[in-house]
Amino acid sequence: MPMITVGIGGATGYGGVELVRLLSRHPQVRLGFLSSESYAGQRLGDVYPHLGDVDLVLEPLAAEPIIDSCQFALLALPAGKSLEITPALLKAGVRVIDVGPDYRLRDPAVYARWYKLSHTSPDLLAEAVYGIPELYPEPLRDARLVAAPGCYPTSALLAVVPLLRAGLIQADDLVVDSKSGVSGAGRSSLALPYHFPEADEDVAAYAVGGHRHVAEIEQEVAAVAGREVAVTFTPHLVPMSRGILSTIYAKPARSATAAELTACLREFYADRPFVRVLEEPLPHTKWTAGSNYAYIAARLDEHSGRVILISALDNLGKGMSGQMVQCLNLMCGWEETLGLDAPGLYP
Amino acid sequence: MPMITVGIGGATGYGGVELVRLLSRHPQVRLGFLSSESYAGQRLGDVYPHLGDVDLVLEPLAAEPIIDSCQFALLALPAGKSLEITPALLKAGVRVIDVGPDYRLRDPAVYARWYKLSHTSPDLLAEAVYGIPELYPEPLRDARLVAAPGCYPTSALLAVVPLLRAGLIQADDLVVDSKSGVSGAGRSSLALPYHFPEADEDVAAYAVGGHRHVAEIEQEVAAVAGREVAVTFTPHLVPMSRGILSTIYAKPARSATAAELTACLREFYADRPFVRVLEEPLPHTKWTAGSNYAYIAARLDEHSGRVILISALDNLGKGMSGQMVQCLNLMCGWEETLGLDAPGLYP
Amino acid sequence: MPMITVGIGGATGYGGVELVRLLSRHPQVRLGFLSSESYAGQRLGDVYPHLGDVDLVLEPLAAEPIIDSCQFALLALPAGKSLEITPALLKAGVRVIDVGPDYRLRDPAVYARWYKLSHTSPDLLAEAVYGIPELYPEPLRDARLVAAPGCYPTSALLAVVPLLRAGLIQADDLVVDSKSGVSGAGRSSLALPYHFPEADEDVAAYAVGGHRHVAEIEQEVAAVAGREVAVTFTPHLVPMSRGILSTIYAKPARSATAAELTACLREFYADRPFVRVLEEPLPHTKWTAGSNYAYIAARLDEHSGRVILISALDNLGKGMSGQMVQCLNLMCGWEETLGLDAPGLYP
Amino acid sequence: MPMITVGIGGATGYGGVELVRLLSRHPQVRLGFLSSESYAGQRLGDVYPHLGDVDLVLEPLAAEPIIDSCQFALLALPAGKSLEITPALLKAGVRVIDVGPDYRLRDPAVYARWYKLSHTSPDLLAEAVYGIPELYPEPLRDARLVAAPGCYPTSALLAVVPLLRAGLIQADDLVVDSKSGVSGAGRSSLALPYHFPEADEDVAAYAVGGHRHVAEIEQEVAAVAGREVAVTFTPHLVPMSRGILSTIYAKPARSATAAELTACLREFYADRPFVRVLEEPLPHTKWTAGSNYAYIAARLDEHSGRVILISALDNLGKGMSGQMVQCLNLMCGWEETLGLDAPGLYP
Q1: Does pLDDT of B1 surpass 80?
Q2: Do A200 and C201 touch (CB under 8 A)?
Q3: Which residue of B169, B191, B209, C60 is surrounded by the most CB atoms within 10 Å?
Q4: Cβ contact A302:B209 at 8 Å
């Protein structure tokens, strides 16, 4: 297998540095370009001592140096930034995996409403593949442009989509209650809610009824339902660095036991190495730290007749950078787990 | 005002030691008896250096020494233990505030189902007052027996009951998603899930569809609805010591704006010092640490048409020991806030 | 006893808001003025929901409004800011308790060296009382100006000074290794090291060989020794909000047992309510959260012949705002513990 | 290169499960035997969902099954347990890497004093190699028996030994102040100090003047000094799961600048991939999580004339299981970093 060279846009944010961590040990990947505005000119290994042996010097973001040296660009940039370079990258033959929101929403009007930005390359939206390999395996292999989903949508959709497709739960009336570690807020955003003495020993909801990720969740649920749906989504911040646990409340579409729900999920993920369906014990985010594994369990609350789904993953792993590498592996025709099978760090 | 003497059953668990902390500084209370099985014979101030000046010696639990010296017994005991002494205490004229489950559920069959114990004094259930002073203020004053509610039910009911009574939300289809600090698991239960390296940097659900507290929540919701209801309740453990945040999803009973929901809650709690209704910011558990204050906010998710309620309190404060002292104050005809108005410890 | 009115300079930093928390419940104190640059014009209870019932509106710092309404000014300001108003306050008869560094160092040249500021009222340094009531009780009562010490120096000096004065340890060769919670870094300093995902699950030393607090420690040790001394002081950040633990390594001045060391400390603090000397167990910072209590233990490492002292306090309590209230009580001739005897919040 | 088969004694403690995590992904290792008393009969992947794909069934500890299937035994057992099987393993030609204390102390009387156990195979002590590859590289390659050091000694010795050997610091008067995450206490020890609400938001010293690891530190310092030495060692528990930071205070042996100290360390570790010597920033334990890397910095406190060394590592990585795999690699003649070069998990 020939090596490929990868450029990373936004290499010093938490998602970017996790990409460097994973790719610096990937057996088929050479890092060719790392962008950073804040640390441009510095060696990455000096900025991040845990990656002390990574010698690349950080450069400001631009399409040219990526085109010159890389076959793939992995972008972890703020909203709107990918729009500035992705068309040029694609045109030059560089394949793009973008974990920002710019190519996730198929409808540019929905993008404009949630991100207050007008889309400058709507023609590319039709070919962008929403990058959850377990749910949309086919088109990934030959994709030029992958829009890797947000951490919350990955967490919710991995649990919801198989049961929706199997007709076991209703598309309406979904409630997604998510609990996230603080790294989800990013590294450059030194706002008061993420100041240690504020976030420590605290739990709170935020953006109730108005978090941007609900648009993605609804888009993918609607795609199964074949009509528009409204999902209730409430994110919370909990005092830990990594991890998302989503507790999802659904109405059954037809009578089914907990064992049938579990069996449906198990069958769906039978050949997929990164999603583990459990009966007991219930998923813990701790199992996923630093890994690309997700854990799902389905329960039937016989008392109230509700289906309760629990989904755990690492927001920077399967929820972001790990999933990007998984997409990369598949786009290159490699084993899905190549360089990506490290178990979670426990305890 | 004359001083009263109080005995505490279970003084060395987390709830009991919090009672000692509060009552050792209460201007009208003298501590007369402290029970502990594990530390019997030791001075409480030696067992708990943060209460170094509390000189009482711990004794095994028994009715007699309480009857001999106390007008009130505050009990924080495992299920079934209160049954063993409460009838004798009441008979001898000692008033009882019991934060265990023994007198909370009006139907002894429901108690038997959830706690696997047969009730030995069902005749007392009719007079037991469910001890949330804001919701049931009248009968408290003259009560002989108060059944102080669990931490989760207090958290949920403070938000739900006023809106239910006002006919603004439906009694059916309630989902209560609660996030609790680890002290809720108690101190003597040294089980693996509460071992620091296991609970740290982790979030997980537990007892999905089967937590005992759902019985209390349903009992009180049913009392407003006038019929049986089923509530979906999912508790979670988050890596902090104190605090519960409940996120509650309800269907509106009639069209109402978020402002109307907030106004309804504000009016309900207008004269109650310990419940604060906020529009912005959303409640944080951190504000409540060590205090008897609870914070509530109501939001309308216009997108999905759902009412979302957020409720924050300290599981050992308003969720347990603080609320017991609040009941005591009212039973004695004192200011509700006497010895209890310390703000939360922030940060 | 007549009420007094107190103004707080810097009321929205962590030290200031802790002063408000303590004084808002103090039986003899009325809050007359609260300064804040960032939140000027807002009601303090709105900025800090845990103090929801505090109605004062925040104002920019100035001497006049304090002079107009207050007998005491408690200042928790950045270095140099107290210099701007303290002379005017004193001249107008307002007594000042300043927890900033401006009046702590008797030698203005030492102040200039460490704080890069030139002292503008060096004439006041002679009368400033270093505000650790247990160590310097006499001059406090009539002081016009109290320079409350830093959190680290309080932690170290409470353990060291009694043994030094008793001739049990040497003034030379002292090593102070301190571990602090993150609130010590303040609230407005949103720097990367205090961002939750950075500080969480981490411990590191900082300012090795160059922390400003070493100047205070040396000044007070030198005052006992009667000559200049050099102290080695290393602060560390640990992932918790509150608390300082100092581990102090000293050479014995003469042969003494651990029991003699403990007895010396016990005798020294026999009549002081806020310092507790323990043999077993060793001090934990957890016992001190939100309180004005400090815990000290002395051990003799018979193997190496070294005296090891352990000192625990709350950096915002006895290490800062609690100690300021303790000074206020003594300056007013009140009980030292008035409004200040709340035990630590455990767990 | 041929694969080797490895047996793990004590596979379900924190150290053992970390060995499984590392070796399950090691390119040259096959796991042949995993022991556990508590989980015997269960599949490891069921007990530890983060290692869900590890299929081996746990068995009680015994020499025979290891001898039957393995070339190497890696033992992470309580004191005294290795004594029971190591002689048989060696006799049968199985090479042993033991991270317990049984073969670390060359003098069986010292072992007996600290561990209250009488040594039953003292004849093996002479050939046991103390397993810090950077400090004792030569004898490892052909060793039959490696006694891997404790986490605290590794942390201290990596910083101290090179400077001692170079004559830059004195062997006397060493103070080692260490701060450890709670996983160091193990998983089966569900004692109160490690209960989440007790350890959270707390820092405390323990075993002052009496921790067993001081014997190892002194043994290795004495080996350089050529005479007995006494070291002062104080361990502390800090509220995090993984990591040890040691702050070491030493007296210079001759005049040297900080740059010379750093240069000495850099030269010593020039060809060693796992020890990184930094000038700036100071080491953080966070960089090391889940990795085999250690970070060291040397400072000269010009004020007090003391050398201050800071050393950070993961107590379960370079402090335990990582180092055992590093020893294994060297004993097999492989690259030191084989299967072991994963960077620390940040953030």
Answers
A1: no
A2: no
A3: B169
A4: yes
The pLDDT of B155-184, averaged and rounded, is 98
The answer to whether D195 contacts B190, with C-beta atoms less than 8 Å apart, is yes
| pLDDT value of position C303 | 85
Please judge whether C284 and B24 are an interchain contact, meaning their C-beta atoms are less than 8 angstroms apart.
no
Residue pair A256/A313 in contact (Cβ under 8 Å)? The answer is: no
**A308 vs B202, B209, B238: nearest CB:** B209
Closest CA to B328 of B101, B133, B151: B133
Q: pTM for this structure? A: 0.98
- Which residue intervals of chain A are DSSP H helices? 14-23, 44-47, 63-69, 81-91, 108-115, 137-140, 151-165, 196-199, 213-225, 258-268, 322-331
Give burial (CB, 10 Å; 0-12/13-18/19+) of D123: exposed
Residue of C286, C293, C314, C346 best to disrupt the B interface, most CBs of B under 10 A: C346
pLDDT value at D258 more than 90:
yes
Structure tokens given for D154: 């590794």
Over residues D244-271, the mean pLDDT reads 97
Nearest to B268 by CA among B178, B139, B170, B162: B162
Query: Domains of chain A, with CATH numbers?
Result: 4-127 (3.40.50.720), 152-315 (3.30.360.10)
Q: Which residues of A touch B300 (CB under 8 A)?
A: 209
Q: How far apart are the CA of D239 and the nearest CA of chain B, in angstroms?
A: 8
Measured from the Cβ of residue B286, the count of other Cβ atoms closer than 10 Å reads 27
Q: How far apart are alpha carbons B122 and B216 in whole angstroms? A: 17
**In A, which residues are within 8 Å of C191 by CB distance?**
190
Report chain A residues whose CB lies below 8 A from the CB of C192: 187, 190
- CA-CA distance, D291 to D260, in Å (whole number)? 28
Where does the pLDDT of residue B209 fall: very low under 50, low under 70, confident under 90, or very high at 90 and above?
Answer: confident
Average of per-residue pLDDT values in chain C = 97
Determine the residue of chain D that is closest to B239 in CA distance.
Answer: D196
Contacts of D179 in chain C (CB under 8 A): 179, 203, 236, 238
**Is residue A284 within 8 Å of A295, Cβ to Cβ?**
yes
pLDDT tens digits, one per residue of A119-130: 999 999 999 999
Helix (H, G, I), strand (E, B), or coil: what is residue D128? coil
User: What are the residues facing C344 on neighbouring strands?
Assistant: none
Q: What average pLDDT does this structure show over D206-228?
A: 95
| D47, B192 contact by CB (below 8 A) | no
How far is it, in rounded angstroms, from Cα D122 to Cα D220? 19
Yes or no, beta carbons of B196 and D192 under 8 Å apart? no
Find which of C12, C14, C47, C50 to mutate to test the B interface (most B CBs within 10 Å of its CB): C50
Tokens representing residue C133 in the block: 């009531």
The sheet carrying C95-98 orders its strands as: C29-34, C4-9, C72-75, C95-98, C145-147, C129-130
What backbone phi and psi angles, to 5 degrees, belong to B300? -110, 120
Identify the pLDDT of residue C94: 98
Alpha carbon D6 to its chain centroid, in Å, reads: 19
DSSP secondary structure of A85-143: HHHHHHHTT-EEEE-SSTTT-S-HHHHHHHH----S-GGGTTTPEE--TTTSHHHHTT-
Contact A202 B284 (CB under 8 A): yes
- Asked about A332 being catalytic, the answer comes back as no
Whether D138 shows a pLDDT value over 90: the answer reads no
Question: Which positions of C are annotated as active-site residues?
Answer: 151
ipTM of the complex: 0.97
Q: With a cut of 80, say whether residue A1 has pLDDT above it.
A: no
Beta carbons of A281 and D49 less than 8 Å apart:
yes
Q: A-chain residues within 8 Å CB-CB of D183?
A: 347
Reported as a single tens digit per residue, the pLDDT across A98-141 is: 999 999 999 999 999 999 999 999 999 999 999 999 999 888 99
